[in-house]
């Protein structure tokens, strides 16, 4: 049971202690101990060459202990995915100090209390706020069997990079909802469409793609990974303001533990960090190497997005706190990297499987003005799916209802970004509005 909040809105000191106790209780030991892991070599593959790998069904091969094993296999072995398990009813947040600290900002405490109150009205949910000084011990305990991940976390040159990475790591290992502290819930958590599926289970006809083979047994799965649209800028200068034309939100994410999409994102960030920095932490880790057939520029953050063709940036330059800029943050751990990981995983699903259920009711129905709906791009979307086995970004533009691809649910922009006043975002009073981001932006000064 969570402690009651008094009338003045103060959380008793016991709250902080209970949160820490909860975190420690949740930790589990893994079969691969630290003494063994430092004795073998880790191969760090890239995530840009997965055409022949079924990421959804990937199973780590059996290898002898103290042998060479790649990082994807280590992650899959330590955190196997069970799509039949429900999403854990847990909310994760982080801040610099514990919730009961006198240094905890009053405004941030107010936001945290709104989550706590929402949890009290949502059956079976619990809450954990992890302060900065508990993050590394937590990761060392959880990811002790995958030491290269901890090595990469320590090597990240800026706090915001670590904050981004931590949210992916905790959801991959434990699952639940992660939401930035400058957010507030707008609906009871049990009313989210990922939990209450009545609104999205109805699909008259699944959307076909080139490899698709329809069967009578295909039914919509309970979502295992839930995200929202952050930005859908329909303007020619979009790339001056956003990392991607369709940008997925990563200030609020819901996931089952072990989801393969998060595995690939963690692999990408770890590989990029090991290839883009020289700093190595104190945590013992085995030697690692990159596959010889993969160009080293695949692992360099200076070879991402706009910097790839900019002569002033060298792919061999190692990153430090002084030379890591906003573009690096976007494409290393931020919404650029996150959006790329989502699209890459979804495309891999339909490239390597013939039974992926795709539901997008935004492309159906009658509309007097298709220019304001996803149907505006119906032909381009259909050609991409049925001729090329890939999703165009337009598949997710202008959506008003949740989109489901296998067990990945994409919510409309209003769900996690209401009240922004453009890009089709609705009001925080809309039925589909679930979380409001207050845009405090504390990380920008770090």
TrEMBL record:
Looking up SUPFAM superfamilies in the UniProt record yields: Nucleotide-diphospho-sugar transferases
Alphabetized Pfam families for the sequence: Gly_transf_sug
Query: Which Gene Ontology terms describe the biological processes this protein takes part in?
Result: protein N-linked glycosylation
Entry's transmembrane regions: 12-30
- Quote one Gene Ontology molecular function term: alpha-1,6-mannosyltransferase activity
A GO-annotated cellular component: mannan polymerase complex
**InterPro entries referenced in this protein's UniProt entry, alphabetically:** GlycoTrfase_DXD_sugar-bd_CS, Nucleotide-diphossugar_trans, Och1-like
Write out the entry's keywords from A to Z.
Membrane, Transmembrane, Transmembrane helix
PANTHER family in alphabetical order: INITIATION-SPECIFIC ALPHA-1,6-MANNOSYLTRANSFERASE
Q: What family does this chain come from, according to its entry?
A: Belongs to the glycosyltransferase 32 family.
Tell me what this protein is called.
Answer: LAMI_0H13696g1_1
Which species? Lachancea mirantina
The taxonomy runs: Eukaryota, Fungi, Dikarya, Ascomycota, Saccharomycotina
